[in-house]
């Protein structure tokens, strides 16, 4: 697969995960359900009247959707140099969304999308290396 295919596939996976994380955060606000029973004992995450973790996941799901589907199309978001900051943001979000039971599927989708972005980065590095070997000529 070429770099642009990995990029588009990763983008669609991350858009899907942003929707699942957003909706799971809304569901978790009304019925908080931690993914692990030991997390019920942590103060602040699942206390009543408002659980904190689902609210954070709602905001992060909206930020993820804004990153992957920007209102203003800028060339930077489609270039391979923008993939590294995305991956750096997606990895902690993946771990955080694993902590809420309603957003586990979104976390898995985001992990797959992050791996696809890493494959796009790898393909771009290979293409740059091949061009450097050829002296800048297209092979």
TrEMBL record:
Q: Which residues cross the membrane?
A: 12-30, 50-71
Keywords, alphabetical = Membrane, Transmembrane, Transmembrane helix
Q: Which domain of life is it from?
A: Eukaryota
Q: Please spell out the taxonomic lineage of the organism that makes this protein.
A: Eukaryota, Fungi, Fungi incertae sedis, Mucoromycota, Mortierellomycotina
> What Pfam family does this protein match (any one)?
DUF7727
* Domain DUF7727 per the UniProt entry, residue ranges: 1-122
Q: What name goes with this protein?
A: DUF7727 domain-containing protein
């Amino acid at each position: 697969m070429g770099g642009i295919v990995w990029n588009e596939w990763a983008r669609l996976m991350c858009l899907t995960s942003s929707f699942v994380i957003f909706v799971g955060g809304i569901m978790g606000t009304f019925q908080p359900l931690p993914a692990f029973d030991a997390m019920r004992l942590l103060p602040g995450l699942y206390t009543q009247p408002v659980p904190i973790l689902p609210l954070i996941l709602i905001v992060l799901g909206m930020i993820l959707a804004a990153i992957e589907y920007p209102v203003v199309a800028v060339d930077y978001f489609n270039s391979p140099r923008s993939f590294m900051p995305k991956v750096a943001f997606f990895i902690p979000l993946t771990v955080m969304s694993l902590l809420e039971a309603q957003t586990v599927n979104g976390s898995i989708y985001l992990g797959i999308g992050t791996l696809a972005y890493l494959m796009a980065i790898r393909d771009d590095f290979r293409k740059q290396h091949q061009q450097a070997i050829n002296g800048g000529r297209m092979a």
